[in-house]
Amino acid sequence: MTGVQKTLAQTLGVVVLMGGLAWASVPFYDWFCRVTGFSGITGVAEDASDVVLDQEITIRFDASLDRGMPWQFAPPEDRTMKLKIGETGLAFYEAYNPTDRPIAGSASYNVTPYQAGGFFSKIDCFCFQEQVLQPGERVQMPVTFFVDPEIVDDSEGQYIHTITLSYTFYEIDLPEETAQIETDPQTRLN
């Protein structure tokens, strides 16, 4: 192998390696954020906390829509909730489809400050699955959560007194069965 061929092979190897790393970086970053709570990604819990402390924390609720998403989306009427650390909270966000067509949406979420992400656990959430609203449909969407008592022992977490839970809804493609009903005139007549 000549020097030029060797250099070309090495360069091609670096390009392939960098492409592979770029391809793997998104799922790896998502996994890293979910495990560590980095960037405000919350945890998911099977059950409520078995420890409730006599310290309170304030939870703020925020809602927004991606540009072009035609729904109306609002946080709970009471935009803040005080809970004891470890206590289970339940809040209802509201979504409304003012259009004349079904629209599917998916919610992304985070908490701030970002250091709280590893201590904020959702037991159940509308954000775990896509939502489809029919024309004129208004729904209350629940989220059940708690703040892990370990937050009081964390070097940064112990100073957190307010956590903001934010959701943004994005329009996504309709599920195949909903899209079929929408486009099949025979189905609409029945």
Task: Kindly describe this structure.
With 190 residues, the protein is an alpha+beta fold. It folds into two domains: 1-36; 40-179, Sandwich (Ctag/Cox11 (Pfam 04442)), CATH 2.60.370.10. 25% of the residues lie in helices and 36% in strands. The protein is built from three helices and ten strands, in the order H-E-E-E-E-E-E-E-E-E-E-H-H. A five-stranded mixed sheet has the order 1-7-9-5-3, with no helix packed on it. Strands 4-2-10-6-8 form a five-stranded mixed sheet, with no helix packed on it. The radius of gyration is 22 Å and the shape is flat. The model is unreliable at 25-40 and 183-190 (pLDDT under 50).
Layout of SSEs?
Elements: H1 3-36, E1 43-44, E2 56-65, E3 72-74, E4 80-84, E5 89-96, E6 103-112, E7 120-125, E8 131-133, E9 138-147, E10 162-172, H2 176-183, H3 185-189
Parallel strand pairs: 1-7, 2-10
Antiparallel strand pairs: 2-4, 3-5, 5-9, 6-8, 6-10, 7-9
- Secondary-structure content class: alpha+beta
Strands across the major sheet, in which order? 1-7-9-5-3
How many strands, which pairing sense, and closed or not: the largest β-sheet?
Answer: 5 strands, mixed
Question: How many domain modules?
Answer: 2
SSE order in H/E notation?
HEEEEEEEEEEHH
Q: End-to-end distance, in Å?
A: 72 Å
* Level-2 CATH architecture of the largest domain: Sandwich
Count of distinct strands = 10
Oligomer: single chain
Unreliable sequence segments: 25-40, 183-190
Name the CATH superfamily classification of the largest domain: Ctag/Cox11
Enter the CATH topology name of the largest domain: Ctag/Cox11 (Pfam 04442)
